[in-house]
Structure to design on (267 residues):
């Protein structure tokens, strides 16, 4: 089911399936900023990466001493979230462990997602709550896809990503499909930048991320969109042996919670 937030400037629509943004538009521009999930290229739109970012190449992870078959980036993108409540400027959803999630990830958790719309900016706020009798281990990241080009008079190579620090040469990454032939996923580890701007010089998406995000990735499957992906951590694709609890993951003690957020404006 789709829920809507609207103000004088923008309209945001969020789907309970995968808790993804279905649409984000400004009222003064005839532009859809979010990818529509066309399965010809990629059926997702802006999935939440939990309880792990990426996966080993054999799609098997060892949790609590046992092997589990997993999906890439976890199960949130294939899960129906529960609608919790709506306020004047926010929507809140949640996902709890279930019979289906326990088949892939034998941990008890509650995941809350709150979307807040202020003028032309949406903030996406997450909380992971440990429901285990013991420690909870997980990875976390985001995968929002933005239309690129944003308008019919532009092409993919008219766009670039601006960094607010010197994480790439000249603080600017020019986009082209040739770039992604060389780097299927362009990854910046431990970026100093906290703001990343997708731009064609006229229309922009300005993303700001919390300090907890330690990786910034850029990806496209040679399609008319680009993903700007802040990750907290990521699994080594070639490591098929290390137990999950011994990897680079977030660890929560019993009863603890973990908060993180990112936000982006459409300009």
């Amino acid at each position: 089911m789709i829920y809507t937030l609207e103000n004088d400037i923008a309209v945001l629509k969020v789907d309970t399936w995968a808790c993804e943004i279905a649409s984000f538009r400004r009222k003064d521009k005839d532009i859809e900023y979010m990818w529509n999930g066309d399965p010809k290229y990629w059926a997702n739109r802006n999935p939440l990466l939990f309880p792990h970012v990426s996966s080993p190449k054999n799609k098997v992870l060892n949790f609590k001493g046992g092997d589990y078959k997993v999906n890439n980036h976890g199960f949130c993108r294939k899960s129906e979230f529960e609608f919790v409540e709506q306020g004047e400027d926010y929507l809140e959803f949640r996902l709890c462990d279930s019979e289906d999630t326990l088949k892939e990830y034998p941990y008890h958790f509650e995941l809350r997602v709150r979307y807040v719309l202020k003028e032309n900016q949406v903030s996406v706020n997450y909380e992971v709550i440990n429901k285990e009798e013991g420690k909870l281990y997980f990875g976390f990241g985001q995968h929002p896809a933005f239309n690129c080009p944003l308008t019919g008079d532009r092409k993919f190579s008219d766009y670039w990503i601006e960094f607010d620090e010197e994480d790439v040469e000249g603080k600017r990454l020019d986009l082209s499909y040739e770039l992604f032939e060389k780097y299927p996923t362009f990854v910046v580890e431990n970026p100093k930048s906290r703001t990343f701007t997708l731009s064609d010089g006229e229309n922009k998406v300005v993303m700001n991320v919390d300090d907890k995000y330690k990786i910034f990735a850029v990806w496209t499957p040679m399609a008319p969109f680009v993903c700007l992906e802040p990750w907290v951590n990521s699994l080594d694709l070639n490591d098929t042996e290390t137990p999950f609890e011994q990897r680079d993951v977030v660890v929560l003690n019993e009863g603890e919670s973990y908060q993180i957020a990112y936000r982006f404006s459409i300009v």
